[in-house]
Every structure is written in structure tokens, then in C-alpha cells.
Write a structure and sequence with these properties.
With about 240 residues, this protein is of the alpha/beta class. It contains eleven helices and eight strands. The chain folds into two domains: about 110 residues, Rossmann fold (3-Layer(aba) Sandwich), CATH 3.40.50; about 130 residues, Rossmann fold (3-Layer(aba) Sandwich), CATH 3.40.50.10090. α1 packs across α11 and α5 packs parallel to α6.
């Protein structure tokens, strides 16, 4: 079972189905845009920033929509150094004509912080960090400790969106679902709230990375396998390993 939002599930469903898996898409969350005013204010003041940091493709998508709605394009970001948490996020930027200066070796917020820590152009610089509401504060806290000035602007929020929870719970308890994949801690929380921890424990949980795994364990569940690296390709490989 793939619990990614409907607009992103296909990137995981397709390769798993190609390997012969019977894939069920059950989005655990959906994303909703927030009041764009704080982001629009930042866009109007882009010249004041030195860095633009993204930790998800979704943040890139929402940010880009607001940028283009304001009648601007990649040229508006030309003087900014841009950092992306991993190759998929970097690709989402590069496809829009935005070069990426920093992508870490470990595709998590901690890895991106380590990559920025090793540079001499962070201290005293101003950073714009568009992100989901309620996102972990690892990156802004770490950057501030390095002497950067960080503006966190919330673009969107994840809202629980599990449909047919009673039927899904019954299938889990009956052992009809072998593995469940998670790509975000918010999805784990929404899923467990919807079906119950006892039902969730009947399927092997496969996580995209350490932060998501930490939420699984916080809720008293076990992680069968973890993607390494923390990418969709890594998650597919982790599913294969768990299935074996």
C-alpha cells in the first residue's frame, strides 16, 4: 500500500507495479495551500536574500505557482544560491530553470544542514525557507546556530485524508496487506489515527528515511525496512528487501 498524496503516488506505484507488486493507493494526507501573504511579501523582497532552501518537491511546486502568479520566473532567483534536500527536489527546481548549488549526500534535513555547515557563505547571510506548516525545525535552528538569518514561510499544510478507514482496518487485520510505505511523518500519524495502531501493526512498514521512521517508532510500531538513500528509488529497493 502506498500512502503518498494522490498527485505523487504514481511515482512509487508505477515502479512497484512493474516489479509485480499488487499496489493499493490510499493517500493518508492531502495538501492544502495556506495564506500566501507571507510568501508574497518575501517574493517582493527577494533581493534581500542570499539563500533559498527547499526540503520537498511540494514546497517547490507551491512556491513556483506563487512566483509565476506574481509574473516572475527563474530569472528572479538568479542571484540567490539555492539548496535542495535531495535529487528529486533538485530536479524539480532544475526543470524550472533554477540551478541548485547544494544537494547533500544524505537526503534529509540533517544532511542538508551538514552540507551548508561546511561552506563559508552562510554566516551572516539571509535565508528564505519555504516549507510545510508544522515541519521540523532542524534546518532553521541549525542555520541560525551557524549565524544565518532565517525566514521560515509556511506554504501549505498536510491534512489527514484517509478514506474508507473502516474497510482498510478490516483488510489490515485480515492480513490482506503485506507492506505499507510512508514518505512523511504526517502520513504515519494520519494513517495510524484512521485505522488504529493495532491494525497498522499487521502490515510491515517501509519508511523513506530516519525522520519518518522516528514517527513510526514514536507511535509504538516497528519499521520493517528503511530506504537508503532516502529517495523513491531507495524506497522501492527497501520494499523489495522487505518483501523478501
Amino acid at each position: 500500500m502506498v500512502t503518498s498524496p494522490a498527485d505523487r503516488a504514481g511515482a512509487l506505484t508505477a515502479p512497484l507495479a512493474a516489479l509485480g507488486a499488487e499496489v493499493i493507493e490510499v493517500p493518508a494526507t492531502r495538501v492544502e495551500p495556506l495564506d500566501p501573504a507571507p510568501v508574497l511579501d518575501a517574493l517582493a523582497d527577494l533581493a534581500a536574500y542570499d539563500w533559498l532552501v527547499f526540503t520537498s518537491q511540494t514546497a517547490v511546486r507551491f512556491f513556483w505557482q506563487l512566483l509565476t502568479d506574481a509574473g516572475r520566473d527563474a530569472a528572479a532567483l538568479g542571484r540567490l544560491r539555492v539548496a535542495a534536500v535531495g535529487p528529486a527536489t533538485a530536479r524539480a527546481l532544475e526543470e524550472r530553470g533554477v540551478p541548485v548549488a547544494v544537494t547533500p549526500e544524505q537526503f534529509v534535513a540533517e544532511g542538508l544542514l551538514d552540507a551548508l555547515r561546511g561552506r563559508d557563505d552562510v554566516r551572516g547571510r539571509r535565508v528564505l525557507y519555504p516549507v510545510a506548516s508544522g515541519a521540523r525545525d532542524v534546518l532553521p535552528t541549525g542555520l541560525r546556530a551557524l549565524g544565518a538569518r532565517v525566514d521560515v514561510v509556511a506554504l501549505y499544510r498536510s491534512v489527514p485524508g484517509v478514506e474508507g478507514a473502516a474497510a482498510l482496518r478490516a483488510r489490515l487485520l485480515a492480513g490482506e496487506i503485506g507492506l505499507v510505505t510512508f514518505t512523511a511523518g504526517s502520513a504515519v500519524r494520519a494513517f495510524v489515527t484512521a485505522v488504529g495502531a493495532d491494525a497498522a501493526a499487521h502490515a510491515g512498514i517501509v519508511s523513506i528515511g530516519p525522520a519518518t521512521s522516528a514517527v513510526v517508532r514514536e507511535l509504538g510500531l516497528a519499521v520493517r525496512a528503511v530506504a537508503d538513500p532516502s529517495t523513491l528509488d531507495g524506497l522501492v529497493a527497501a520494499v523489495v528487501a522487505a518483501a523478501r
